[in-house]
# Entry
Amino acid sequence: MSEKDTQLKKGRLGVLGIVFFVVAASAPLVGMTGAVPVAIVAGNGAAASGTYVAVGLILLLFSVGYTRMSSQVTNAGAFFAYVGKGLGKHMGVASAFASLVGYITIQLAIYGFFGGLLALQTGMLTWWAWAIIGWLVVTGLSLLSVDVGAKVLGTLMVLELLSLVIMAVAILINGGPEGMNFEAAFSPANIFAGGFEGGAGIAIAFAFASFIGFEATAIYGEESKDPKRAVPRATYWAIGIITALFGLVSFAMVTGFGASKVIDQVLATSDGLANPAGAVFALAGQYVGPWLPEVMSWLVVSSLFAGLLAFQNAASRYFFALGRGGVLPKSLGKTNPAGAPQNGVIVTSAIALVVIAGFAVAGLDGIGNLFFWMSAVTAVAIIFVEILVSIAIVAHFSKNKGANVWQGTIAPIVAAIGLALGEYLLMSRFNLLGSLAPTPERAGNAWDLSPLGWFLVLSPFIAAVIGYIVSTMNKHENSDLVNDILS
# Structure
């Protein structure tokens, strides 16, 4: 295998291209139609808006050390390289396995939402039939090249952002039935209402899940024009855009329904959360006109598709980096003439197809089961890895130059504490996120999970342990892995 076949094509992406990928991966319209209504109803009501802002601030703190360290790390595996540099090769590989769980499950979640939404909107085919159609297109595009993906994602992202901003501005200008209630939405007392055992944990969990994908800035470092500058800039821009967007639009939703009635109104317009997108569409129709919810109903499909393509790229590049490094079969570390990690794409797609087929055979629902179960696992996995990255940053800069006290110690420690709090809240409320309590009556009890629920919530940690063992026992790791982590 030549060196050309084990290198991603360089110089193909600038800051704007990376930001397109990352913001598209966060699927803003999907988050607004899927996550925010649930965060409002099952979480902390009007204060869901402030929760998104608070989580965004934690991730900005995380990014201080993350982007500083990016000047010393440039590889397709991103997070695992950061953990490896700070905590050692074996921990790096362990985090890579956990990250793979996160990226694979978020793509599976989106396939469920994609298929379920199209089945509802068209009245044709089943959710899994639509999911397989999407799977065919995503697999084909991801095999072409990252350039094609960036152009597609950029166009879709601009359209969906525009639709959300139009709705938000229209609502805020109108003022809604009760006016703009900043205290209800952004007061710390309201954001943390209910504490660890109550709605605050649910809202924080959904907020963290909605940011999944921002870390993909570093994944494209090897393919960027100037990774030392492009990755930090793209990271701050991506987190800033996502935070501002979710904060603004969720506050507009609260204003549009009225802070004191927002929970009842979301329930009424979303068929009791059976169709959470209905809440956003109802507001768009009321405050802008019937044409906007019609447009948004299809833009949310394109947003889902954009997310599918972005996470396909992310997962396949993790497989690529581990294959090139000798942790996984060498064939995974090969690129095709277009510069795409061909076999990584194929493996990622194969896993998705098997799971979609399994859920279909079992008679499970695309949205109610695949989307909620897998998105919950994703959040647990990625926050876990972010905690490891924060610790690794501190460990790395305690032994190496390149960062001041704020960048290398204070910011990552504060971020790690915030992330650990979010992880605790997410895991303790996992039965609500995934409807995986032993019985419906016990869903309000923290840490009360069915056997399947325990398996899902622990799966990222199980994967990390497996990755650590594989790394310690593997005799085929090569210089690429060492260079990715230790150079």
Notes: The chain is about 75% helix and 0% strand. Residues 21 and 388 are 24 Å apart (CA to CA). The radius of gyration is 21 Å.
